Amino acid sequence: MKLGFSLPQFGASAHHPRDIARFARQAEEMGADSLWVGDRLLAAVDPEVGYAGADYIPEQFRAALDPFTVLAAAATATERVLLGTNVVNAPWYPPAVLARSFASIDLLSGGRLLPGLGTGWSPEEYEAVGVPMKERGRRLDECLDALDALWGEGTVRHSGRHWSIPHSHMEAKPVQRPRPPIYLGGFAPAALERVGRRADGFLPIAVVPGMADMGAAVDRPLAAVREAAVRAGRDPGVLDVVLRVNPTAEAAVEDIATAVLEAGEHGVGHAFVDLLYLAEDADRTLDLAARIMEKVRER
């Protein structure tokens, strides 16, 4: 089981960005396999859609650092850990900009990038970036096409419904060839269909405690993804899975370790723990990460 952790990026951590490199270096030294960022832009005061089914957005999202900046800091401070996004909201970005940012991280890290893409859920964030939220699924599909073109061999050209790229040279390609593996998140039927049809991996989520039923968190959505892969003429066995474990403020270290280990029993070979709600500074987060890792490794 590969085990990773989220990087300090949101809430109180956003006000102490110099801790990012130290956190990344120490997490790698204590044996973490991966480090992850998310993508939040703002927290609406009166949200049309709240977070995770609630009618509000957690105060931790009122301060958020840019995911690419955070990954760059982690890349320069580490040598081994994988560096993932779970997730970057692809429809917010022109594909040429996204391709450049991801390629820069992959080059900087020597080929350690795991790009995870999604569509987000906040109407206010879509309004702020000037992108119609109703187009998010179609834009993600086109973004995937454009990334293939941008990261392919030779020159690039793309003409789509939402973006056009004139015939151009774009030679700063990712280290990983033909491109970094693309992971997709989401749980709506259309999102699961897209994972099976387009992605190299799936990004399910388990909330601990609360949604620690790995059948609901992993087995059922993954079955839908694999069925979609078969319909698309793909081998479902090649799809990777990275589980995000989201502990609530009430979660204990034992709860988190148990969820990680149970995920392994359900065929998940890689999980990371988001400690956003359990710690407000890098030292406390590192301590929790060490205790979780010890619990997982000792069993």
TrEMBL record:
Alphabetical keyword list: Flavoprotein, FMN, Monooxygenase, Oxidoreductase
Superkingdom of origin: Bacteria
Nucleotide-binding in keyword set: no
Enzyme class: oxidoreductase
Keyword Membrane listed: no
E.C. no: 1.-.-.-
Pfam families: Bac_luciferase
MF terms in GO: oxidoreductase activity
The Luciferase-like domain, residue ranges: 12-256
Protein name as annotated: TIGR03619 family F420-dependent LLM class oxidoreductase
Species this protein is from: Nocardiopsis suaedae
